[in-house]
Design goal:
With about 140 residues, this protein is of the alpha+beta class. It is about 50% helix and about 15% strand. It is globular, with a radius of gyration of 15 Å.
């Protein structure tokens, strides 16, 4: 399991206050929250307010990058996230004075991945870019 996916599953399990997901595997948890088929995405209405659970799930992606970054560098990272009720928003991961990741969300109602593998690849890409930015500006921290 990639560093990003491990961080993401840790975030998901930490949010499970009552142990409802204890019997699910890590891959089942990730698939339930972040993997949707094209048919499932088409069934989601565009004209609707985005629910808090979806906002929390999107925020968890950024938190996973922050935690994975902290594990790799031993530097503290923070997440800033803002989402409108219409599903438009932005999130950032900050380490010191540097924005190490920035993600804009449009039509967040339908934000999903085709597979766990594609999510893992995207997460590792986000983490790699964050580490590259950190290395480039390490004198600013």
């Amino acid at each position: 399991m990639s560093v990003f996916l491990k961080s993401l599953t840790d975030q998901i399990r930490a949010s499970d206050q009552f142990g409802a997901w204890d019997n699910k595997t890590d891959e089942e948890l990730i698939a339930k929250k972040y993997v949707k088929s094209k048919e499932e995405l088409k069934a989601i209405g565009v004209i609707a307010d985005i629910d808090e659970t979806t906002i929390d799930d999107l925020k968890m992606l950024l938190k996973a990058v922050a935690v994975a970054f902290e594990r790799k560098t031993s530097k503290m990272a923070s997440v800033i996230f803002d989402m409108s009720h219409e599903g438009f928003g932005r999130g950032a991961v900050i380490a010191g004075e540097i924005v190490i990741m920035d993600k804009t969300f449009r039509d967040a109602h339908r934000f999903a991945f085709e597979s766990v593998e594609k999510l893992a690849a995207e997460g590792e890409k986000w983490l790699s870019k964050a580490l590259t930015i950190d290395a480039k500006y390490k004198d600013r921290q």
